[in-house]
Each structure stands twice: as C-alpha cells, then as structure tokens.
Design goal:
By secondary structure, the chain is an all-alpha fold. It has one domain (about 20-90). The chain is about 70% helix and about 0% strand. The longest helix is centred in the middle third of the chain and has 64 residues, at about 15-80.
C-alpha cells in the first residue's frame, strides 16, 4: 500500500511560525489588558468602599463632637454656684459653722 501526499496539503515550515509570532504578542496583550481591567475594577471598588468608610467616620466624629459640646455645657450648668445654692436650699442645708470647718495643710 502506498500513500501519496499532495504537496498542497503539506505545511510549509516558513508560514507556520509567522502565524505563531503574531498570535503570541496579541494573546499576551489580551491577557495583560484583561489583568489591567480587573485590577482597575478592584481598585475602584476599594476606593469607593474607603470613601464610604471615611464619610461614615467623619459623620460619627461630628456627632461625637456635638455630644462632647453638650456634655461640657451640662457640666458647666451642674457646677454653677447658683444651681448648687438652689439645691442646698431645697435640701434645707445651712452654711457650715466655723467649728465644722477644717483647714487643710
């Protein structure tokens, strides 16, 4: 049995590598572009998440400063001499006698 091979069906060694030479850089660029797009999407998502976290933290800071301001005002009111005198009168307290006073060194 003999097999005949047509010359047109044979691969020419000079044309096959040329196609591979053009295909490899294109494939590399496609993979590189895909990786860059995935990284860009990841970085954008992280940036957006960080922006939301920063916004929430700034809002919380503003609320805490307002609470601190209110507490300082309330502390000032609680320590005021007029309020203490009124509370002493309501409790029927009298000023201390000289014998009840002690001097500290």
């Amino acid at each position: 049995m003999s097999i005949s091979v047509r010359k047109n069906n044979l691969r020419r060694p000079d044309k096959a590598p040329a196609r591979n030479i053009l295909l490899r850089p294109a494939l590399f660029m496609l993979v590189l572009g895909t990786c860059a797009a995935i990284f860009y999407a990841y970085a954008s998502a992280r940036s957006l998440e960080t922006s939301y976290r920063l916004s929430r933290a700034l809002e919380q800071q503003r609320e805490l400063r307002e609470v601190g301001r209110r507490l300082r005002v309330e502390l000032g009111n609680l320590r005021s001499p007029q309020r203490l005198e009124q509370a002493a009168q309501r409790a029927a307290l009298n000023p201390p006698l000289p014998s009840q006073m002690r001097e500290l060194p």
